[in-house]
Amino acid sequence: MANLGKIARRGGLYTLLGGFAFFGAFPFYWMVIAAFKRDHDLFSPLNNPFLFNEPPTLDHLRLLFFETHFVGYLWNTLLVGLAVVVITLATAVPAAYALARWARGWGETLGIGIFLTYLVPPTILFIPLSRFASFFGLQESLWSLILVYPTFTIPFCTWLLMGFFKTIPKDIEEQAMIDGLSRFGAMWKVVLPLSISGVLTVVVFAFTLSMHEFIYALTFISVSAKKTISIGVPTELVRGDVFQWGPLMAGALIASIPVAVVYTFFLDRFVAGFTMGAVK
Amino acid sequence: MGRVEIRAITKLFGEVRAVDHVDLLTNEGEFLVLLGPSGCGKTTLLRMIAGIEEPTSGDIVIDEREVTHLPPRMRNIAMVFQSYALYPHMTVFKNIAFPLRARGVDEESVRKKVDWAAGMFKIGRLLDRKPRQLSGGERQRVALARAMVREPSVFLLDEPLSNLDALLRASAREELRQFQRRVGVTTIYVTHDQVEAMGLGDRIVVMSQGKVRQVGTPLDIYQWPADTFVATFVGSPPMNLLDQGDTLLGFRPETFLPADAVEGSEGIVTWPFEVTYLEYLGAERLVYGNVGEKSHARHVAARLPGSMNLSIEAGMTYPFAVARGDLRRFDKKTGLALPGGTT
Amino acid sequence: MSAPAHAAPPPHVADYGGITDREGALAKLMIAPAVVYIAAMIGAPFVLAILYSLSDATTGDPALRLVGLQNFRAALADPVFRMSLRNTFVFTLVSQTIVILLSRILATALLKNFRGKWLVRFLILLPWTAPISLGTIGWLWMFDSIFSPMDWVLRYVGLLGTKDALFGFQTNMYWLGIPGLSMASVILVQAWRILPLATVIQLAGLSSIPKDLLEAAEVDGATPWRRTLMITIPLTLPIVSIAFLFGVVFTFTDLVVVYVLTRGGPVHTTQVLSSWTFFKGIEAGDLAQGAAISLFMFPVLAVVAVFILRLARRTEVV
Fold first, then answer.
1. Distance (Å) from the C-alpha of residue C111 to the closest C-alpha of chain B?
2. What interface predicted TM-score (ipTM) does this complex get?
C-alpha cells in the first residue's frame, strides 16, 4: 500500500517537472521545427505545426549563412564578448580580492556599493551613454559596446569573485607569506590558482551577459553589418513587414543552444559560490 | 641563533587590549610554550612574532635584528598553523619545496633539502601525493617538514596538535619533542591545553587577558604559581583555594589526603572532610566534598592514588590533611602569591 | 621604546617591505580600476541623465540648457506616459508574483534526486541561459496572429473557431493584437524568462537549510506542513525576498520582451517605462523627455535597493 503512494508521488513529481521542462523549452522546440520546415508547410495554418508535413529543408540555413549578415553577427558578438571578458577580469579580479581580503571596514561598504551599481538600469544610462559614444566618435562601432558592457559585468563579477575568494582560508595566504612571498605574490601564486573555478565562472558569465545584452546594442548600433546576434536576429531578418521565419528561427536556435549548454554547466559553480556565503 | 626578544608589545583591536605590554626573552634552542585560555592573546602574540599581525606598540627583535615592521618573509622564521595550511593544489614535494623556490634556491639544492626534511619526518614515500590524500598525522608532518626545510632560526607553532584525535596526539607530542631536541631550533608553541604545555615546554608562559601571568619551568608553574589564575588554570582538578579572611589558602588535590597518610617535616594541617562525590578513574580516585563549618563550607577536591585502598564513601566525613610545606598563600584582593606558606 | 640591554642597538628598518607588502596601499591600488570605471561609466552618466531631464536637449540640438521641471510635468500630463507607468507596475508585480510562486514549487521539486535530472535542469534553464531576445522570438511565432501553434491546438480541440467555441468564433486569438490579451502575453513571456533565475536562487536557499533542524522538528512530532510553515518558510524568507526583488528590478527596468513582441502596442497598451523611454529618447530623439521618463524608475529602484541591502545582511550573501 505504501508503495502505491510512493509511486503516485513519484508520478506526480515527474509530471510536475515534465510540465515545467515543457514550459521552459517549447518555444525552442518550435525554433527547431521552424528552422527546417519548408515555407509552404510552415505557412499553411491547417498543417499540424508539431510535425514535418513535408520533408525538412536546409534552405533556411542556406539563406541565413549566405544571404544575411548572420555570420557577421556571430563574429561581432564573439569579438565584443572576448574583449569584455578581458576588461572584466583585469578590473574585477584585483578589486574582488582586495575587498574580500584586506579592506576591513571601508572595504565591506565599498563592496556593497559596487554591487548596488548593478541595480542602476541600462534604461536610465543609455541616453547619456549614447551621447558619450557620439562624443568620442564611437557610434556604430563595436567599441561603444566593449566600453559600456563592463558597467554590468564588473559589479556582478566583482561580487561573484568576492564570494569565491572568501572561501579560501586566510591561513594559506599567511603561510605563503611566511614561506617567502610578498602579499601580492601570495595572491598571485597561491590564491588565484586555487580560485580557477571562480575565475572561469566569471569568464562564462561575463561572456554570456554581454552576448545576451540587447538595450545598449539596440541603442548604439543601427548599421546592419555591425550588429551583434542579440539585436541582429530580431531586427534584420525582416523583408519589409514580413518576418523570414525560417531563417529567423534557425538563427535564434544556433545562437542560443551552445551558450545555454555552457551556461548551464557553469551554473553549478555559480550556485556553489553563492551558497558559500549563505551557509556558514 | 634563535633569540627572540619581545619588548613592551601591545596590540589593540579597537578598544580591546588583545596583548597588553608583554615582555619576553627566549633562551636559545628552548621549547617555549604560550599557554592560556582562548582569547588570552597567545595566538595574537605569536602572529606578531611571525609578522602577519602588526603590533600597536613595542618592538620585536630576532637575533639582534629589529623586525617589528618587517614582512614575514624577511624574518627567517617558520610557522605551522593549526590547520597546517598545506597548499591543496600542490604535491607534498612541491609543498615542502615551496619556501625554497620562493627564495630562488637552485633546483638541485631544493631536491636535496626536501629529501632531507622528508627523511627527518619519515614522509619520503608521500612526496607524490596531494594533501587531500593524507591522514591528519601525515599532514602535520608535511607541515613540519615544510617549516624545517629552510632551517629557520625560530619555529612558531599554533596549536598544531589540536586537530589530531586523542590517541594520535600523545604520540605526536612525543615525536615533536624529540625532533625539537635533536634539531635544537628555538620553538615557540601556542596551546590552551595545559597537559600539553606541561609535557612539552622547557618553559611555560601563562597568559590571561593579554597579560603574562607567569613565566617558568613546568615545575615552577605547578608548584609555585604566581597567582590564583595560574594556580587554577594549571592542574586538573585545579588547586583548592580556601578563604581565610584576607588571604586564600591553596593546596593541590594530590597533597590533600587522609590524615594518616600525610607526612610533613614542618607539620600537617587537618580538616574534617565531608565527602559528597567520588570518581574512580583507575590510576587515581578523585574525591569531592566540603571542608569547614556547615554555614560557609568550601568545595574541595582530593586526589588519591589508585594504590591507596582506603574505603571512602559519599556522605561520610573523614579527617584529611595537607603537609604545611605544600600550602600556598595568595592575597585575596590581587590574587598574587604571598611568600611563606604556613598558617 | 625601552633601551635594549645589549651593547649595540639593532638597526631600525623603516619600510615595511615595498608596496607589494603594504596592505592598505596595495588594496587601494587594486580596487582603483573598478572604482574609476564605475564612477566614469555609471556615476557620471547617471548625473548626466538627471541634467538632461532638466534640459531641453534633443539629438538635433543636444546642448544642455537647464529649463527646470517641464519635462517631468509634460510626462505626467501625457496619457501615454501615465499608461506606461501603470503598465510597468502591472507588468512587474503580476509577472514576479507568478514567478515567485512557481519557482518555489519548482525548486522544491528539484531538491529531489531523479533520473535525467541534468536534462530537466537544462530545459528548465533554457529561457534564461539563451539570449533573451532570441528566446522571445520563439514566442513571437507562438503568438503569431495567423500561424500560432497554440491557436492550432485550440482549434484542434474545438475551443476556437466554431460557433459554440469557448474562446469564440474567430480562427485566431490575436495574442498580441488585443489590448488586455497582449498584456497577458507579455507578462507570460517575462515570467517564463525570469522563472529559471528565481528557481536557482530558491534552490540555493532551500538547500542551505541544515538538515538537522528539519530532522529535529520531525522527531518533535511536527507534520510536514508545520515544518514547512515554521521552519522552511521563515528560514528561506530572506533569500526568497532577494529573488523577488531582483526579479522586480530586472522586470521593472527591462524592455526586451515588450520591444520584441509588441513594440509597446497595440496603441501603447503594453508600453512600459523602459520601452517608452527608448521610443521617445532614442528613436524620436527627444533626449530630455527620454531622460525624464527613465528617471521615474529611480524611486522604486532606490526602495528596492534598501530592501535588498537589509536582506543581504541577513543572508550574508553580499
1. 29
2. 0.85
**Which domains can be identified in chain C, with CATH numbers?**
54-315 (1.10.3720.10)
Q: What is the CATH number of domain B4-228?
A: 3.40.50.300
| pTM: predicted TM-score of the whole model, two decimal places | 0.81
Cell of C192: 517564463
Grouping H, G, I as helix, E, B as strand and the rest as coil, residue C164 is: coil
Strand pairing class (B328-331; B337-338): antiparallel
Give how many domains chain A has, as a whole number: 2
Selecting from A172, A175, A182 the residue whose C-beta is nearest the C-beta of B71 gives A182
Same domain, A93 and A108: yes
Please, which pLDDT band fits residue A272 given cuts at 50, 70 and 90? low
Cβ–Cβ below 8 Å for B66 and C6: no
Q: Within a 10 A sphere around the Cβ of C102, how many other Cβ atoms?
A: 19
CATH 3.40.50.300 fits B239-338, yes or no: no
End-of-domain residue from the set A23, A39, A57: A57
How far apart (Å, rounded) are the C-alpha atoms in residues C127 and B233?
A: 64
Q: Look at B99 and A183 and tell me if their CB atoms are within 8 Å.
A: no
By C-alpha distance, the chain B residue nearest A173 is: B85
B7 with C2: Cβ contact below 8 A? yes
pLDDT class of A192 with cuts at 50, 70, 90: confident
Chains that touch B (3 or more CB pairs under 8 A): A, C
Q: What is the CA radius of gyration of chain B?
A: 24
Please tell me whether residue A239 adopts helix, strand or coil conformation: strand
Average pLDDT, chain C: 83
Cα–Cα distance, A197 to C280 (Å, whole number):
44
Distance CA B3, CA C312 (A): 49
* C282/A260 CB distance under 8 A: no
Q: Is residue C45 predicted with pLDDT exceeding 60?
A: yes
Residues A243 and A200 occupy one common structural domain: yes
Q: Kind of pairing, strands B211-216 and B57-62? A: unpaired
In the predicted model, residues of chain B with pLDDT beneath 50 are 341-343
Residues 146-205 of C with CB under 8 A from A: 146-147, 149, 152, 171, 192, 195-196, 200-201, 203-205
Query: DSSP of C274-300, one letter per residue?
Result: HHHHIIIIIIS--HHHHHHHHHTTHHH
> How many angstroms separate the CA of residue C30 from the nearest CA in chain B?
20
**3-state SS string over B38-59?**
CCCCHHHHHHHHHCCCCCCEEE
Q: Which domain holds residue A192?
A: 60-278
Interface contact flag, C309 A122, Cβ < 8 Å: no
Q: Which helix (H) or strand (E) holds A3?
A: helix A2-36
